[in-house]
Amino acid sequence: MRKALVLGAGGFIGSHLVNRLKSEGFWVRGVDLKFPEYADTQADDFVIADLRDQQICRAVIDQKFDEIYQLAADMGGAGYIFTGENDADIMHNSATINLNILETARKRNCQRIFYSSSACIYPSHNQEDPDNPNCAEDSAYPANPDSEYGWEKLFSERLYLSYARNYNMECRVARYHNIFGPEGTWTGGKEKAPAALCRKIAEVPDGGEIEVWGPGTQTRSFLYIDECLDGTIKLLRSDKLGPYNIGSEEMISINNLAKLIAELSGKSITINNIPGPVGVNGRNSDNKLIQAELEWAPSKTLKEGLSKTYQWINNQVHKSNQ
Predict the structure, then answer these.
(1) Residue 320, pLDDT score
(2) What's the pLDDT at 6?
(3) How is residue 205 annotated by DSSP?
(4) Are residues 265 and 242 in the same domain?
(5) Domain holding 216: CATH number?
(6) Distance from chain centroid for Cα 46
(7) Contact by Cβ (8 Å): 190, 301
(8) Of 84, 92, 185, 295, which one has the greatest count of Cβ atoms within 10 A?
């Protein structure tokens, strides 16, 4: 039986990935600081562990796995990433995890490992125009990420690529662009824009007002979780190294994202734009390279994914109010 290791399996993407691998017949070990919050894990073995400890990494990578997915990181939405208050933890925690995992995997002769980087590595000066951001893979250098989170991701990309060169490991690197869907964090300060807006709209009555950070003209693209898993697995099982963007090219402003969610909810809302952390003015996945080399592209629209996500978050909000 094929064996897979999912690091960060208690998180949003990791928990969905465990389910996908189980549906393919894998024996799966999941590792995280916590169990998935909204559903029981389907992992055959789930280890609560702190991957900043190298000895623990040796314990969880105690055999040769056919596939390793490294999603574990210290992360969150704009309210966590862009305030500057968490920079030291973000950089230290995530870099330590990646250093430990790569070296342990090498010593266990685990060759095939996927690393989830981020669109946050792209230079902020290429994302000043909300209508024309440049996020092509070859635009990453000269480097100028807009946050310490982005700098750590860029360092770790280079770490994985170095291990691939020097130790002939089959490392694969993807730059995720705003993954969303059901069973993701929707409250507490670490939620991302789609979940935060779904929650705010679910909480207000028809005709109510919601607050949106920044001018609302800042643009992003958002990728539904099922599409993310398709691209991730296809990349890991390919002979391509990366980095590749895994995201949607359907760009939308944050205000228009709120309006689209309101339309799906059946509510009329008023948007109150207030000061708050927003990141770059514009960001959109450029999928030309991954389409050409891996023949991958999203198959669903943003509206389809948001419809499922809003329904789930709306149910969560009502449950929490009972």
Answers:
(1) 86
(2) 98
(3) P
(4) no
(5) 3.90.25.10
(6) 21
(7) no
(8) 185
